[in-house]
């Protein structure tokens, strides 16, 4: 199955990409280590790299202009959820991160699909304007799916000035 997140056609590949051309051999020609997948407790999706903020500490350098990863689409998530359903891998939770997940136009339908299939859902967010624009839909999801929906808010320092560095 193709990876759900794709690079923009003109986005350069990192210099390290050559190390991973052969799935069975390292760049030095040695056999790659393998570990059998026996459980998939949490499956994480990156919803895209766009964010309403430009935090200096962001692991993926998300900003209002960084669209290196296109938005994850609802149909892509459904395909992965179908794959999980057809496997013997016990999966309890789906995680959504970004960028800011609530900037993704498909975020509420994606959340609906995940929760509708009985998974717990964890969304990492900065809880700013993009989330608040979806307040009614979030309250509806919470009312229907209860404590299976968790929004984890990023607070990077207890002092405002340090948080906003």
The fraction of residues assigned to DSSP E strands is 5-15%
Inertia-based shape: globular
Number of helices: 5
Question: What's the main sheet like?
Answer: 4 strands, parallel
SSE order, as H and E? Answer: EHEHEHHEH
- Could you tell me the mean pLDDT? 87
Radius of gyration: 18 Å
Q: In oligomeric terms, what are we looking at?
A: single chain
Coarse structural class = alpha/beta
Q: Percent of residues in helical segments?
A: 10-25%
Total beta strands: 4
Compact description:
Helix content is 25%, strand content 13%. By secondary structure, the protein is an alpha/beta fold. Strands 1-2-3-4 form a four-stranded parallel sheet.
Polypeptide structure, described:
By secondary structure, the protein is α/β, with parallel strands linked by helices. It has a domain at 48-58 and 66-92 and 104-122 and 140-165. Helix content is 25%, strand content 13%. The protein contains five helices and four strands, in the order E-H-E-H-E-H-H-E-H. It has a four-stranded parallel β-sheet with strand order 1-2-3-4. Helix 1 links the parallel strand 1 and strand 2. Helix 1 (74-85) packs parallel to helix 2 and helix 2 runs parallel beside helix 4. The protein is globular. The protein starts with 41 loop residues before the first strand and ends with a helix. The model is unreliable at 1-5 (pLDDT under 50).
């Amino acid at each position: 199955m193709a990876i759900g997140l794709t690079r923009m056609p003109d986005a350069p590949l990192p210099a390290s990409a050559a190390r991973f051309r052969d799935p069975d051999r390292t760049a030095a020609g040695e056999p790659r280590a393998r570990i059998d997948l026996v459980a998939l407790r949490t499956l994480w999706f990156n919803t895209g790299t766009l964010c309403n903020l430009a935090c200096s500490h962001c692991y993926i350098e998300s900003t209002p202009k960084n669209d290196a990863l296109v938005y994850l689409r609802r149909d892509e998530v459904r395909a992965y959820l179908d794959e999980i359903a057809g496997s013997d891998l016990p999966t309890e939770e789906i995680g959504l991160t970004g960028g800011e997940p609530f900037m993704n136009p498909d975020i509420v339908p994606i959340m609906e699909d995940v929760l509708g299939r009985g998974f717990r859902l964890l969304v990492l967010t900065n809880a700013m304007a993009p989330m608040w624009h979806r307040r009614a839909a979030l309250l509806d999801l919470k009312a229907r799916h209860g404590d299976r929906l968790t929004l984890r808010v990023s607070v990077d320092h207890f002092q405002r000035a340090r948080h906003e560095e």
